[in-house]
Structures are given as structure tokens and as C-alpha cells.
Amino acid sequence: MELVRAENCRKSFDGEEILGGITLSVNEGEVVSVIGPSGSGKSTLLRCCCMLETMDGGSLSFAGKSAAKEEGGKVVYASHAELKEIRKTFGLVFQNFNLFPHYSVLKNVMEPQMIAGKSKDEAEKKALECLEKLGLSDKAKSYPCQLSGGQQQRVSIARALALEPKVLFFDEPTSALDPELTGEVLKVIRDLAAMHMTMIIVTHEMNFAREVSDRMIFMEHGVIRAEGTPDEIFGSDDERLKSFMGRLRG
Prior knowledge:
Blueprint: E1 2-13, E2 16-27, E3 31-35, H1 42-49, E4 57-62, E5 65-71, E6 74-77, H2 80-87, E7 90-93, H3 105-115, H4 120-133, H5 149-162, E8 167-171, H6 179-194, E9 198-202, H7 206-212, E10 215-220, E11 223-228, H8 230-234, H9 239-248
Parallel strand pairs: 3-9, 3-10, 7-8, 8-9
Antiparallel strand pairs: 1-2, 1-4, 4-5, 5-6, 10-11
Helix pairs in contact: 3-4, 3-5, 4-5, 5-6
């Protein structure tokens, strides 16, 4: 089943084209990694898919439900009520955690659930389940400033999982972490992949992407330059792709 489809997605900022007509589809249980140099449009694509940015052109749907479509040369989004339901389909894990500093870990994971309509008791039960799953039960009463970067990112993953999304988006989930803390976050994502969680991951961790992905997409200058299985991407004869991955892998 196709869970996410963005078709001919276009986006410009101040007259500069950032996305030049991207088409992306992701099926249930699939892990897709998006790689490419800085400025290639990776994060903008993710933000358009999550509707944090509005598209200038193209269409977007989740599990067959239309979120946006192009009509008469402009993009028309679904109604507020429809988008509210569609947004329940996915969760987003940011680069920089985006935790509320004045909330405890438990309340950080509970709050989005309560906004979505769960009772306090339901939200607390689910939050504790997710924190336990991510090895953070002992941090429930702590505050973000008392946690390491890796722990904060795991809290943000728990927060996303607590909403029971069908799809998880990750925007460079380890870019704000010291190398020694990166491993614990990548392990969580590996575990989610083993559970067949549908994920779209923007990442610069090449070996991790090769290990965890069903499919990889290489973006450059706002377009998809290469797409395929990890073996196809790593075995590509495209000189630009080989140069890019060679630099990142050191």
C-alpha cells in the first residue's frame, strides 16, 4: 500500500528554485533514505511532505487521501478538518529535538497526544510505554537540560511514536549530536526498521543508510539524480554520486 506520494513537487524561495519537480512515493513498511549535498533540497522536500512548507506546484497524498493538488497553476490544500486527520498519519523527528525546555520528559511526550484528543490518563500510559521502549523510563521526570543530546533525540522519537503514526519522517536525526552519541539514535532507528516502521530519512550517515534502507534517493540541485536499492546506489557508475559518497565515507 502506498502511504506517501508527492508528485511533481516544486518550491522556490525568493525566486530561487529549491525543488524542481520531485516525485516521491513510499510504500507501507518501506525505509527510504534521502541523501545529497547541502542545498540540494532534501530538508525542503521533507518539510513540504510534512506540510511545514507549502508547495508552489505539485500534489501530495497520504494513504490515498489528498492533502494538496494543483489546480489552475496553483496548489490547493485540503480543508482544515481534512488536514487535521491527514496529519495524524505521520510523525516528524527534527534535527534539533524541539523539546519544550520547561516540560518534563513525560509531559513532552504526553502533550502532543492530548492536543490530538487523548485523555491525560491515556496520554500518560502511552508516553510511559514509548519511553520504556526507548530505554528512557528512568528519565520520565527529568527535564531536557538534564539529558544528553542522544537522550533528547530519543525523547523526540518517543514523542513521535506516541502519536502512533503510519509514517515517520527524520530530518538529519544525528546532525546535532556528537559522534559518540550518534550510535544510540541510529540503533533506535534500526530497531524501528526491523519492526517494519515506514520511514523517510534525510541523512548524511552513508553506511547507516546502506544498512537500513530499502531504497535510497540521491538529490542534487533540487532534483532526483539517482534512485535505487542501496547496492544500486553504492555500485553506481555515476561519477558525481561516487564522488559525493566517497567524501562522506572518508
